[in-house]
Amino acid sequence: MKEELAKLIDLQKSDTKIRQLKQAIETASERRASLEQEFEQHASSIREIQKRRDDLTAERAANENQIAENKTYLERADRNLKHSQNQKEYETAMREIDALNKQVTALETKVVELLGSIEEVEKELETRAEEINTLDAKRSEAMAAFDLEVAGNQADLENESAKRKVVFDTLPSQLASVYDRLAQRSRDGIAVAEVVNGSCTACNMSLRPQMNVEVKKSDKIITCENCSRILYIASREAEATAS
Ligand SMILES: [Zn+2]
After folding, report:
1. Residue 240, pLDDT score
2. Ligand 1 mean position to 191 CA, how many Å?
3. What is the pLDDT of residues 98-127, one digit of tens each?
4. How many whole angstroms from 190 Cα to the centroid of ligand 1?
5. What is the Å distance from ligand 1's center to 220 Cα?
6. For position 54, which CATH number holds?
7. Of 153, 183, 212, which residue is a domain's last?
8. Residue 151: its pLDDT value, please?
9. Could you tell me if 90 and 59 lie in one domain?
10. How many angstroms separate the alpha carbon of residue 203 from the centre of ligand 1?
């Protein structure tokens, strides 16, 4: 019976591992997408800052063009002033010069403001330069590592399934069907539960002392009185509690 119990324990370990691997494989594309999204959020926050810098730079250029344009108008207005023939022409030119000067002053103030903002954005980009420069490489690296892990899961699943088949096929058919029935019945797929500190680890019920002794002996299949799972005590603990 000890040998059969050992097989049941092996079977359970295989099935638990298979279950975890299947779950990892089933959720892989979802997890991959969220990993990708994390990187994308990063990249888009960087693009946002770069766009802000580009927008500010474009605005500065537009303002400077406007200043240059106003200065040519000013030259023309200056000529008009010099060549004014009467009081009316003189006043018109003066008003124009005055208005243009005000516009130029406002535009220059705006340019100074823009230069300050551009400097701030440039500084932010500079502090994040390392992050910006390595983001693409880090993304590819992380995605490759993830794909490798999933491929590893696939390979492990195949190995574990083959291992499980060998164990299952050598189990007496009656025990095999008991195992299957218990495993299918429980939501977590646990048919064989370890006893730790005198309690069934599947349902947390404390075992009666007599049962604990019988499980320890492991000369027959003992099931939990509460959840019906097959019980065992790992040899390490059996040794520790027996002494
Ligand atoms: Zn139990």
Report:
1. 55
2. 10
3. 999 999 999 999 999 999 999 999 999 999
4. 10
5. 17
6. 1.10.287
7. 153
8. 98
9. yes
10. 4
Q: How far apart are the CA of 209 and the centre of ligand 1, in A? A: 15
Domain count of the chain?
2
d(CA 141, CA 172): 48
Residue bearing tokens 């690296």: 141
Distance from the alpha carbon of residue 25 to the mean position of ligand 1, in angstroms: 29
pLDDT digit string, tens, across residues 31-57: 999 999 999 999 999 999 999 999 999
Residue 22 lies in a domain: no
Question: What is the C-alpha to C-alpha distance for residues 26 and 48, in angstroms, rounded to an integer?
Answer: 35
Claim to verify: residue 71 and residue 177 sit in the same structural domain: no
Q: Is 192 found in the same domain as 81?
A: no
Q: Pairing relation of β-strands 192-196 and 230-232?
A: parallel
Range of the domain at 235: 172-242
77 and 127 in a single domain? The answer is yes
Between the CA of 183 and the centroid of ligand 1 the distance, in Å, is 13
C-alpha–C-alpha distance, residues 210 and 33, integer Å? 53
Residue 142 lies inside a defined structural domain of this protein: yes
What is the tens place of the pLDDT at every residue in 218-239? 888 999 999 999 999 987 655 5
Residue 207 burial by CB count (10 A; 0-12/13-18/19+): exposed, middle or buried? buried
Query: What whole-number percentage of the chain has pLDDT above 70?
Result: 97
